[in-house]
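Per reviewer request, we include the raw input and output of the structure prediction for the construct analysed in the revised manuscript.
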Amino acid sequence: MRPVDKLIGAYVGFFTVIIVVRGVSEDLMQLWLLTAHALIAVLFFAFTKLKSQHRTGRIIHDLYPLLLLPAFYAELGMTSLLSGIEATFERDAVVQGWEATVFGGQISYYWIRQFPSVFWSGILHLAYVLYYPIIVIGPVFLVARGVSDKGRKVLLATMIAFIACYVVFALYPVAGPNYAFEHPTGPVREVWSARLVYWLLSHGSAFGTAFPSSHVAATVAATAALWQVWRGLALVVLMPTVLLVVGTVYCQMHYGIDAAVGIALGIGAGVVGVRIRA
């Protein structure tokens, strides 16, 4: 098994325990989730049977973690609600205390209101959405170029960041400012990219996944890893990454402390992931 397989296998085992202990809202849904986890074990077994000439199978093995991320994220939302909405907002109060200590106030609430800018709101909400292509572009392009080992390193770094965040989400769900505070109003909220972000969140946001910011952690990890294996592509995604980090806070999607911890996790994952033989 590759390091990323072991990482995902360990996380699936961990979250299987969470599902059994905490449960989900419906017994049938719990059965489906546990079945899906069992199928991942079957997938790992299938990977051991791949022959060197099975190019399609090798590509799937190289990139499959990207396909699992939406499912992992969705099941976090299902189980976080069971920890109790009131308990989750109590944890928000704790994080808001950290926020006030570090930043002198609730920066995610006041920033966009004290410095409203339609231009920057449009740019930063768009950058928030660029999270999706940033985490995908490196591994896919590297595998397509025939340097799959480097693609696997970038993806491993990204997955280390994701899994670290997801474990915290499972154990310490925090709703985040998108749920804890009322949304901004006026032109900064009505710009097209802001409407897009809020539409995406209304259709696919998982409650309890704010601290630390997986958006920031995974994007920084992918960019940091790319910087070490493909500097040219890293330069392409560097500015969108910086704007995304700023946008998560300015656009009131994450507390400032969420982004700060996400940056630290991302840099650490980017450094460690590239140094592991993937």
